[in-house]
Amino acid sequence: MHYEFSALSDVGRVRSNNEDAVAIHADAGLVLVADGMGGYNAGEVASGMAVQAIGQELRPWLEGAGRGADAAAVRAAVTASVEHANQAILQWAQANPSCAGMGTTLVVGVFTDSQLVLGHIGDSRCYLMRAGGMRQITRDHTWLREQVDSGLLSTEQAEQSGLRGLLTRALGVDQAVQVEINEFGVRPGDLFLFCTDGLTDRLDAAALAALLRKPAPLPALAQRLVRQANDLGGRDNVSVLLVRADGDRA
């Protein structure tokens, strides 16, 4: 399987600094998106540390034996790298009072020949667009999502709530971190959208799908998504990372 990658991160129309971080390691099939939170500039420290630490740990392994590893081995490697990043962020916050309380969401994807191993923490998301249909393949780790899953709130009530950003999991907050990891088959033509909530707070899945259905190179699609989020207010940083599976290229 051949993959194309493109990413774009924008400060938005309201914030003065960008607390999102994105990274693509194409040779390793590794992509990362993080959305930091905390005090003054601490959010960008947390997201940057997460993306850098996980990339530095996973990339060499994936570029070597890891690309041919089975899903269980990739899951274990992702879990270990996330745990190490969590400790690094906690230690930095303890040593630097200005960063106390910082944390970050995370989505990490490892693309192999015909499979995606996908890990996530928090409310940054990954969507899969296949045959014109769009679906979210991550589950938000938020208080509202838990209320919907337990039947205490309807989806409509949750969408109208002012508590959308209340996370139940984040990286760099607690000593123990729980990353949710799942595996997905990849087919030629699949388009994956990784993004922070600066995009999804402005655009629902139907609106995202409508923008992505119009043919364009990946960089142009990324610009289209970010521009639309900004046109709708740009109240937060907006980051998108697109991955397209093109099948074998002999």
Secondary structure elements and pairings:
Blueprint: E1 3-10, E2 20-25, E3 30-37, H1 42-63, H2 71-95, E4 103-104, E5 106-111, E6 115-121, E7 125-130, E8 133-136, H3 143-149, H4 155-160, E9 180-185, E10 191-195, H5 197-200, H6 205-213, H7 218-231, E11 238-245
Antiparallel strand pairs: 1-11, 2-3, 3-4, 3-5, 5-6, 6-9, 7-8, 7-10, 10-11
Helix pairs in contact: 1-2
Task: List its salient traits.
250 residues, alpha+beta, 5-stranded antiparallel beta sheet, 35% helix
The radius of gyration over CA amounts to 17 Å
Q: Helical region count?
A: 7
Q: Could you give the distance between the termini?
A: 10 Å
- Average pLDDT metric: 91
What sort of overall outline do the alpha carbons produce when their principal axes are compared? globular
Low-confidence stretches: none
- Helicity range: 25-40%
Looking at the structure, the CATH topology is Phosphatase 2c, domain 1
DSSP, total strands = 11
CATH architecture verdict = 4-Layer Sandwich
Largest sheet: 6 strands, antiparallel
Overall number of structural domains: 1
Determine and state the CATH class: Alpha Beta
Structural account:
The protein is of the alpha+beta class and 250 residues long. α1 (42-63) packs antiparallel against α2. The termini are close together. A hairpin with a 2-residue loop joins β7 and β8 (133-136). The relative contact order is 0.21. It has a single domain (3-245), classed as 4-Layer Sandwich (Phosphatase 2c, domain 1). The radius of gyration is 17 Å and the shape is globular. The strands form two sheets. Strands 2, 3, 4, 5, 6 and 9 form a six-stranded antiparallel β-sheet that branches. A five-stranded antiparallel β-sheet has the order 1-11-10-7-8. It is built from seven helices and eleven strands. Helix content is 35%, strand content 26%.
